[in-house]
Amino acid sequence: MHLKEYIQATEITALFSFCAYLFYPILGPYAKTLGLTEFQIGLMFAIFPLTLILSSSISGSLSDSIGRKKVIMYGIIVELVAIICYLLGTPFLMLIARFLEALAFASVIFVGLARIQDSLDEKTRGKYSGIALTLFQIGKIIAPVLGGLIADYWFIKGPFLFSAFGLLIMLWLVALHEKMSFGHHFTRSEFNMFRNVKAFFSYRGLRGLGLLGIVMHASIPLTLVFIPIYITEGFGLSYQYIGYALLAMEFFMLFQWAVGKLADRFDKAKITLAGCLVFGVGMLILSLAPGYGHFIAVMLFIGIGASFWNVGCWSYMSEIGTRIRREGLVVGTYFSVAKVGSFLSFIFGGMVVHYMGVKYLMVIVGVLILVGTFTASFFMLTQPHKKRRSR
User: Is residue 212 one of the residues assigned to a domain?
Assistant: First the structure.
């Protein structure tokens, strides 16, 4: 294990996660202040997963070629530009901001996680992955609550300003370890997303994980946009209660370090599938919650499933990525595949919410996850590392 690299990668990725989630609770309500309907919000936010589908695999592949730190630095700069677009506050600039932020996520979060996995060895991968993911969750828990309070007691654009300040600090931290360089000779194959996707799906276990990623990421529009709107409009509560609900869902993610130990001891595929099962059942129960207190209790239950899914997924995927020595490609391509779920969910989820309501979307997402978990088990539990022969 390379401890120094592990610490640097963890602190940079965790800080970026904190800055991003600082304004996430108010994105949906903020878009509504611009006069947009739920369906229009769904279409606008769909640009984020669509961009990730097209860019994540390429960012991962490039990080294998030019180095993780350079790609991360580019991503931070792009995120700062995205925040400026949010602050200017027009529907068109919000669309541009979602596009830029997706590029930043692909370059910082996904590449940063690949960089963390680079520093780990096989025997303790689950344990230290869990520790890193737990540190991320501390920021993800604090940031939504802080962002909601800032929006309530200052003004709704306040979280964006705090986020920009944090990103400037982060850019300075990265610059201490890596200088900008444009000396790399790029090749066409580094930008071939379809080649990367084909390589990803050539492994039986990754086919199952890709399916799980699609159905699990289909829940993101629900938790990111429509549940916050539901809390403010359905329960008639202020922005800070959005932060409390997200805190409840993220609480058990603080114990990913313990789940990581289980992943090292037991089968990583089973840990992953168990987490998805709990998450899917939780979504179905959430649709029946009669009040805010019950809603919070179910969000805590969903968080248990999310913690098992998160650690299991990363440990399982990284084992294969390390084995083929293309960690960046595997991680980036996984997100290109998984974001298909959130892209479709933003589009059709907005329609479901507009015509039927948020509770129906909860049921649909829950059923999708349960069906996907059952199907993926056939790939992940039997010969997961088997490579499909080329024709």
Answer: yes
The yes-or-no verdict on residue 221 having pLDDT over 90 is no
Phi, psi of 359 (to 5 degrees): -60, -35
Residues 241-253 pLDDT 10s: 887 888 888 788 8
Q: CA-to-CA distance for 339 and 37, rounded, in angstroms?
A: 23
* Residues 6+ away with beta carbon under 8 Å from 300: 248, 249, 251, 252
Q: What is the pLDDT of residues 45-81, one digit of tens each?
A: 778 888 888 888 777 777 777 777 788 888 899 999 9
Contact 79, 108 (CB under 8 A): yes
Q: Is 187 inside a domain boundary?
A: no
Cα–Cα distance for residue pair 194/188, rounded to 1 Å? 12
Helix, strand and coil content of the chain, in percent to the nearest 5, comes to 85, 0, 15
How far is C-alpha 238 from the geometric centre of its chain's CA atoms?
A: 25
Contacts 24+ apart (CB under 8 A), 201-204: 201/388, 202/387, 202/388, 202/390, 203/320, 203/384, 203/385, 203/386, 203/387, 203/388, 204/379, 204/382, 204/383, 204/384, 204/385, 204/386, 204/387, 204/388
User: Cβ neighbours of residue 54 under 8 Å, at least 6 residues apart?
Assistant: 193, 336
Residue 388 lies in a domain: no
- Res. 274: pLDDT tops 50: yes
> What band does 205 get if pLDDT is binned at 50, 70 and 90?
confident
39 by Cβ neighbours in 10 Å (0-12 / 13-18 / 19+) ranks as middle
Domain that holds residue 229: 3-176+196-380
Amino acid present at 10: T
> Per residue in 287-308, pLDDT tens?
888 888 899 999 999 999 999 9
Helix (H), strand (E), coil (C) string for 275-302? HHHHHHHHHHHHCCCCCHHHHHHHHHHH
301-310-372 Cα angle (round to 5): 80
| Number of folded domains that form the chain | 1
Strand-pair partners of 387: 203
Q: What is the separation, in whole angstroms, between the first and last Cα of the chain?
A: 38
Amino acid identity of residue 160, one-letter, is: F
Assign residue 31 the CATH number of its domain.
1.20.1250.20
In a domain, 189, yes or no: no
pLDDT in tens, 100-152: 998 998 888 878 777 777 666 666 666 777 787 788 778 777 887 788 788 88
